[in-house]
TrEMBL record:
Alphabetized UniProt keyword annotations: Cell membrane, Endoplasmic reticulum, Membrane, Receptor, Transmembrane, Transmembrane helix
Family to which this protein belongs: Belongs to the MRAP family.
Signal sequence extent: none
Alphabetized InterPro entries for the sequence: MRAP
Keyword Transmembrane helix: yes
Subcellular location as annotated: Cell membrane; Endoplasmic reticulum membrane
Topological type in the membrane: Single-pass membrane protein
Protein name as it appears in the record: Melanocortin 2 receptor accessory protein
TM region(s), chain numbering: 6-26
Gene that encodes the chain: MRAP
Subcellular location, principal: membrane
Pfam families, alphabetized: MRAP
Organism annotation: Nothobranchius rachovii (bluefin notho)
Entry GO terms, CC: endoplasmic reticulum membrane; plasma membrane
Length: 31
């Protein structure tokens, strides 16, 4: 159904955002 697709998209977006922020924080600490 459409709800499942919406939840999967939301989960992927949140996971991608968290990963990006985590990588930015890591690179910021390394430099």
């Amino acid at each position: 159904s459409i709800v499942i697709i919406l939840w999967v998209t939301l989960a992927a977006f949140v996971g991608f955002l968290f990963l990006t922020l985590n990588l930015m924080s890591l690179t910021g600490k390394l430099t």
